[in-house]
Design brief:
Blueprint (H helix, E strand, L loop, with lengths): L1 H20 L1 E6 L5 H19 L2 E5 L4 H7 L6 E4 L2 H11 L2 E7 L5 E9 L14 E4 L5 H13 L6 E4 L3 H9 L5 E6 L22 H4 E6 L3 E2 L2 E4 L5 H16 L1 H11 L3 E4 L6 H7 L4
Parallel strand pairs: 1-2, 1-3, 6-7, 6-8
Antiparallel strand pairs: 3-11, 4-11, 4-12, 5-8, 5-9, 5-10
Helix pairs in contact: 2-8, 2-9, 3-4
Amino acid sequence: MKNATLLPALLFCCTLFARAQTVINFYLTPSISTELLNKNGTFIKEFLEKETGMTIKLIIPASYDAMVDYFGENGSSFAIMSSQSYILANKKHGAVVKLRTVRFGHSVYYGQILTRASSGIKSVKDLQGKTIAYTDELSTSGYLYPRKILERNKVQPAKEIFAKKHDEVVRLVYEGKVDAGAAFYSPPATDGTLRDARVRLKDKYPDVDQKVITLVKTDAIPNDPIVFSRNFDEEAARKLYLALVKLAKEPKGKQMLIDLYGTEGFVKASDADYNSLRQVMGITR
């Protein structure tokens, strides 16, 4: 009789223990300020926890490389990551894409090479022997695609630096610390409102769009993917991505996503959506 009485209690304790051990890691691409990532990321985390009943831990990786490496660890994890990071996480660790972001009504975006309007730089060829700032070597719009433009034009800068953040690249160009920089690009609104990386410095430098201009933009890039670790439970992944879709439809949630990565919403995605990027990267399946 004692055993019969203890069994339900034991099963209950085991269930609680199992739940306590199931923590899902949630990563955000470190492309903007850590303060904003933590603030908006915490809001998203708490919304997802409320919607799914899961326990989620927000982690801001130190770099794009670190984010890819996290997907090689045991346990369940998901992330909003750069497209290039996804290709590597998929190749190395079997990461799986479920959604991709929508910005300004499109699921693709671009990179750009920026320079000061007063620099005298009029073409990509003029960047020969100049100093250029990139974001991160695993940034698609802030390195890979702009770097390909230089390679196609046989241009070799004298110095290349990595500023980590898109807004930091713009700042370096604006202040004349570098001759040019690479950052993300989306076309302006119909009224001319900025929608690219320069908008992040508009409050500090109101004339940034006059002083920092687009020299050239890249080919289209598939938008940032929502990626899950290799053995992530399918039903749990479905709950999470449906919760993200719901988040983007609520006023405060949508604003949080816009402030974070300019994200307006999400659409379903497949691995094949990123094959054109694989070709640019020279990576085979």
